[in-house]
Write a structure and sequence with these properties.
Elements: E1 6-10, H1 18-31, E2 37-41, H2 43-50, H3 57-70, E3 78-82, H4 88-97, H5 102-107, H6 109-117, H7 126-129, H8 131-140, E4 146-149, H9 154-171, H10 177-186, H11 190-206, H12 209-221, H13 227-238, E5 249-252, H14 280-288, H15 309-317, H16 320-331, H17 337-364, H18 366-394
Parallel strand pairs: 1-2, 2-3, 4-5
Helix pairs in contact: 3-17, 4-8, 4-18, 8-9, 10-13, 11-12, 12-13, 14-17, 15-17
The structure holds tryptophan and iron/sulfur cluster (SF4).
Iron/sulfur cluster is lined by residues 292-293, 296, 303, 305, 308, 310-311, 326, 330, 335, 337, 340-341.
């Protein structure tokens, strides 16, 4: 288990579908065994675009958490929480806004893109412009090392790295930094201080990335260093000031190989989804009515799997043998499309059965879900408050 934390959030869009499962949640479930993970419902982010319809948010929040749990996010391993229940995110957002150049926000590609795309609402708001900064606060407040997200979010991660760098640059300076860092190193004991110094030299003089990793791990392990001393030592390792906020790296999630039922991206707005909680009859019906290669008008017309979304489902769900059977059967008109879909139907049903069962447990007992979230909010808050103490201190807001 690494000490390095992972943070990721999702806007509450309601019940999740197979696209979310194959595109994100399965990845989260894998990561939670390797890292301390913090997963949250980005409800404020939902308001940046849906401020006029707040009534849908509450149900969407709970539906999404139920589906996370049902799909294998384990509250014993991961911290699950709701953004607005950790109000420190908003405090950090405000404080970071002081050092955020407007131009940086205006240049984030999603700003103009979304404004042009979502023409049915007015997005010339302060909240919408500040979206990436709120997202930066979401991550930086946990001093996360990695953020698992899809390609579309990369500019947002880049942006938060720049904000962290700027913050450390402006507020990480202190009088006698180098002496303080050296004194902090001594507190680890002479052996470890020596190792730290060696690793630092190797990193700074030879650019040795492994040395940087080892030095970071060494610092993570130290129990008896104060937060301030740790920041100094992290900062001294890489540069000239305290590292109060950590620059996170993106952990790129491979795009879901599973398209929607019609071959486009799976999305509720395209009406082409299989929801995780669809009942078996609905799943069967949806897959049976999936479009196929239009060349197969009659059963005797041969087809081409490359032109058929069902084939893409086979690539996710079927073994080599079944896939050979599809290729042969489709191209020779040896099998019919309904026949071809049956293994996909069976595999999707098998995948969803345990998920639906777990979801039912949480739907039958909503207090279970509320307790998991309450517990997660508390854990997240503790960590967020720790960071905020450092941030306020660095910004001169600790009055005594
Ligand atoms: N912007 C992300 C999205 O639309 C959601 C999000 C909000 C997020 N805050 C985050 C993702 C923090 C990762 C980390 O998908
Ligand atoms: Fe698609 Fe299968 Fe029909 Fe070929 S046989 S068109 S792959 S559903």
């Amino acid at each position: 288990m690494y000490e390095e934390r992972i943070v990721s959030g999702m806007r509450p869009t309601g019940a999740l579908h197979l696209g979310h499962y194959h595109g994100a949640i399965k990845n989260w479930a894998r990561l939670q065994a390797e890292y301390p993970c913090y997963f949250f419902v980005a409800d404020w982010h939902a308001l940046t675009t849906h401020y006029e319809t707040p009534e849908v948010i509450e149900q969407n929040v709970w539906d999404m958490v139920v589906d996370w749990l049902a799909a294998g996010i384990d509250p014993a391993q991961s911290v699950l929480f709701i953004q607005s229940r950790v109000p420190e995110h908003a405090e950090l957002h405000t404080l970071l806004s002081m050092i955020t150049p407007l131009g940086w926000l205006e240049r984030v590609p999603t700003y103009k893109d979304q404004q042009e795309k979502l023409t049915d609402r007015d997005l010339s708001t302060y909240g919408f412009l500040g979206y990436p900064l709120l997202q930066a606060a979401d991550v930086l407040i946990y001093r996360a090392r990695y953020v698992p997200v899809g390609e579309d979010q990369v500019p947002h991660i880049e942006f938060m790295r720049e904000i962290a760098r700027r913050f450390n640059h402006v507020y990480g300076k202190e009088l006698g930094f180098e002496d303080k860092a050296k004194a902090a190193a001594k507190k680890m004991g002479s052996k470890k201080a020596k190792l730290y110094a060696e690793l630092r030299t190797r990193y700074q003089e030879q650019g040795d990335a492994n040395a940087l990793e080892s030095a970071r791990a060494l610092l993570e392990e130290q129990q008896n260093l104060s937060a301030g001393d740790k920041e100094r030592l992290f900062g001294y390792l890489e540069g000239g000031g305290r590292m109060i906020l950590v620059e996170p790296d993106v952990l790129l999630t491979a795009a879901s190989k599973l398209p929607g039922l019609d071959g486009q991206k799976m999305s509720k707005s395209y009406n082409n989804t299989v929801a995780l909680r669809d009942d078996p009859e609905t799943v069967k019906k949806k897959i049976r009515t999936m479009p196929t290669d239009p060349a197969r008008v009659k059963r005797t017309d041969p087809g081409n799997p490359e032109k058929c979304p069902v084939w893409e489902f086979h690539q996710v769900y079927s073994d080599d043998k079944t896939r050979d059977w599809v290729q042969q059967g489709c191209r020779s008109a040896g099998i019919g499309c309904l026949e071809c879909k049956q293994p996909v139907i069976d595999a999707v049903l098998a995948e969803l059965a345990p998920i639906r069962e777990r979801a039912q447990r949480y739907m039958d007992d909503p207090t279970l879900v509320k307790n998991i979230v309450a517990d997660g909010c508390e854990k997240a808050r503790e960590l967020a408050q720790e960071t905020m103490r450092e941030v306020r201190d660095a910004m001169g807001l600790t009055y005594s």
